[in-house]
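Lecture notes, part 5. Sequence design as translation. It can be helpful to think of inverse folding as translation between two languages: the language of shapes and the language of residues. The source text, in structure tokens, appears below.
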């Protein structure tokens, strides 16, 4: 019986510690729905950026990041042939936000942002 009490106490302490160690992150996914491959995808967010050299049509690029400042997001990418560069400005992010963000790249250089974010 004493061992069960120790085990329960240890689990409760571990849960309490983990709850206090929460780090705000945004789970982002960039979806290429342009109808063609793209190159040189770059997503800028406050204080950093991420991207990939190429993304096939219909492919998704997941990325997880932490916002450490405040400001607007920006997306830039090239058509596969390199003749067109497309840019779009997205939502403004604030330090401490967390949740999910989907960025959908559409034909004709259009971009949709679907944030589901909260402030931690």
């Amino acid at each position: 019986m004493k061992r069960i009490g120790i085990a329960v106490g240890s689990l409760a302490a571990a849960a309490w510690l983990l709850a206090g160690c929460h780090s705000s992150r945004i789970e982002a996914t960039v979806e290429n729905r342009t109808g063609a491959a793209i190159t040189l995808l770059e997503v800028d967010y406050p204080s950093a950026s991420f991207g990939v050299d190429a993304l096939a049509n219909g492919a998704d690029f997941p990325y997880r990041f932490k916002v450490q400042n405040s400001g607007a997001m920006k997306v830039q990418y090239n058509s596969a042939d390199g003749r067109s560069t497309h840019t779009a400005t997205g939502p403004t992010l604030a330090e401490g936000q967390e949740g999910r963000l989907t960025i959908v790249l559409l034909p004709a250089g259009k971009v949709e942002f679907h944030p589901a974010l909260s402030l931690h």
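The translated text above is only one of many valid answers, since several sequences can fold into similar shapes. DSSP finds one helix and eight strands in the chain.
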